[in-house]
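Support reply, case 0932

Customer input (verbatim):
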Amino acid sequence: MIGQYQHNIDAKGRLFIPAKYREELGETFYVTIGLDGCLSVYSDAKWADLTAKFDALPISQARKMRALFANAAKCEPDTQGRILIPAKLRQYAALEREVIINGASKCLELWSPERWAPIEDAGLDPENLAAAMGLPVENVGVKATTTEHLGPEGREEGITAYATCLVCREG
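Our regenerated output:
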């Protein structure tokens, strides 16, 4: 799942899940505690995968995941595409009104804007992004003299790139 949306939780604790995500999640999905103070939303199939991995763990490791299952909620969107997020989960993720809904590959993440902002800022840092992609960071932010991958507008206007080109991995 990819993309980002922002929606509000209503007075009854319901959150609208965009149709794009509902299609990928299916008719039933699971909301539980996530990493870094967010909530994670899994499709029925991904939840089954997670449960199978849990069941295969030694008891000493499985104990560490108790809170994930204890705080999970099975959700089925209503006719307007909203799900009820239990109060305990809203409290855990500091979700009051505004919610950032992020695609996170195999699941969705639900964030309070205040918690998401510093994580997104760090993720958008060119050096952090290059490191996460396994690219050399020594040329990130260094003025590049090539316009090869800037396209026709860049060549015509003589624009110079100021970041490592992710296509050719050169600065």
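We compared this against your earlier run and they match. Two observations from our side: Residues 44-56 form the longest helix (13 residues). Residues 143-148, 154-171 have pLDDT under 50 and may be disordered. Please reopen the case if you see a mismatch on your end.
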